[in-house]
Design goal:
Bound molecules: zinc ion
Number of domains: 2
Shape: globular
Number of strands: 16
Radius of gyration: 23 Å
Distance between the termini: 64 Å
CATH superfamily of the largest domain: Zn-dependent exopeptidases
CATH class of the largest domain: Alpha Beta
Strand order of the largest sheet: 1-9-10-3-2-6
Oligomer: single chain
Number of helices: 10
CATH architecture of the largest domain: 3-Layer(aba) Sandwich
CATH topology of the largest domain: Aminopeptidase
Strand content: 25-35%
């Protein structure tokens, strides 16, 4: 490759075998150099503000591809690859991304697309989708010089699947970037008998969710709606309410489920928006989803697949995920939880019907990972389609949001008053 970035003698970090400690150092933004990583020593003037990524580009072909990120200052980088689907992940300290809009949506050479964003406090990430097995030849950052900004450079080369798998097996497993325990300010309030409701705004950080043609991101729409819903529920004084995220941070799907289970939540409401591509036609209105092994229809299946991709999008390795345990108690609890979830979903449809547009088949089911807590009744609300002009207008309307959040709060009230009145037999795993 002959791009100008190639003419420097880089500080190179090998993609394999980086010690965990260094990884922690990278993400912790510590100024210590430890003799390993001089890039972390920064002049005092810039330590107050985050490094800024100003531009990025791809060069090369389907045998060798180079990714370059322009930066306001030198930073550290750790690169590793993931399989199924093939991805290359660049972990860097937290960076302020000021890249041109839509950058990363189209690829070149071995890179099909890339995305970037916060993946944990203090840590940003760039995830490159590669269509086939690749080898990370180099990943390094060079200082600003000759009027050029500091640059992060990643060199990829095509390889075969066998070599690819061998390399990632040899590579020490990257420490799983645990998303931070969301909302640490929500301690268990012992002695407070009010039911705990978890509001789960979908996506966040590096995972934008769906996107309207006008550029609005699902992650922002659902955070705003979720916050409004939380405030309304809290105001009633009848519930304790916590959110899985309160800012633009990524939270893995499993962590959302764990969050609700650890707090012994009585209800989880996951908030999302849907979108159809132009070729898929047009659809509108809100839908309520519950968990099912088999999708109720192809649209529900498509949506669950899309929503379940969050961890893949954020560059998580799913190969080590435990298989679900077969346990009779879990099974019993799950069955009861499903009944409650469905009961709440139906109530929701009834309450929303009067105030907001519903999809023509508003009640659906599919295998959403975020709904899999065996002991927390959970529903996923798709507020509407950002691909539909009218829906998008409503999603952006304060009046609509307020009406819809009121309807959901109303459904929550109905759900708990029926539930506390003693319908259904509790199998005793909880409460
Ligand atoms: Zn979503």
């Amino acid at each position: 490759m002959t791009s100008p970035e190639g003419s420097y003698s880089p500080m190179s970090i090998r993609a394999t075998g980086l010690p965990t400690m260094l990884y922690a150092l990278l993400l912790g933004l510590t100024a210590g150099t430890g003799g390993v990583c001089p890039a972390l020593a920064q002049p005092a003037a810039v330590t107050d503000s985050l490094p800024v990524a100003t531009d990025a580009r791809l060069g090369g072909d389907d045998q060798q591809t180079r990714f370059v990120l322009d930066l306001s200052q030198k930073i550290a980088v750790r690169a590793f690859a993931l399989a199924d689907p093939y991805r290359v992940v660049l972990d860097i300290p937290q960076v302020s991304f000021k890249l041109p809009a839509k950058l990363g949506e189209t690829g070149r050479g071995l890179v099909k697309a890339f995305r970037y964003g916060l993946v944990m406090q203090g840590g940003s990430r760039i995830v490159l989708d590669v269509g086939k097995p690749v080898r990370i030849d180099k990943a390094f950052v060079i200082d600003a010089a000759d009027g050029q900004p500091a640059r992060l450079v990643l060199d990829l080369a095509a390889t075969d699947r066998e070599s690819f798998l061998r390399t990632i097996a040899l590579d020490r497993k990257p420490p799983r970037a645990e998303s931070p325990r969301p909302d640490p300010t929500a301690p268990k309030q012992a002695g407070d008998p009010r039911p705990l409701i978890v509001i789960d705004p979908g996506h966040g950080g590096i995972d934008n969710g769906t996107q309207a043609a006008s550029g609005e991101l699902e992650k922002a729409i659902v955070l705003e709606f979720g916050t409004m819903l939380r405030d309304k529920l809290e105001k009633s004084g009848k519930y304790r309410v916590v959110m899985t995220r309160t800012d633009d941070t990524f939270v893995a799907l499993g962590d959302r489920v764990r969050f609700a289970r650890e707090r012994q939540a009585a209800l989880l409401i996951s908030i999302h928006c849907d979108a159809l591509r132009k070729v898929e036609g047009d659809a509108q209105g809100a839908s309520i989803y519950t968990l099912a092994d088999t999708a109720s229809d192809s649209e529900a299946g498509r949506l669950a697949d899309a929503e379940n991709k969050a961890d893949v999008i954020a560059g998580f390795d799913l190969s080590g995920e435990p298989n679900e345990v077969a346990d009779i108690l879990v099974d019993l609890a799950q069955r009861e939880t499903k009944t409650y979830s469905l009961q709440f979903a139906k109530t929701l449809v009834g309450e929303i019907k009067g105030v907001a547009r519903l999809h023509k088949h508003p009640l659906k089911a599919a295998g959403f990972k975020v709904l899999k807590a065996p002991d927390v009744p959970s529903v996923l609300v798709e507020l509407g389609y950002v691909s539909n002009a009218q829906d998008l207008k409503l999603l952006n309307s304060d009046a609509w949001r307020s009406r819809t959040a009121d309807a959901i709060a109303q459904a929550v009230g109905v759900f708990f008053s029926t539930r506390l009145a003693g319908t259904g037999g509790d199998v005793g795993l909880r409460r």
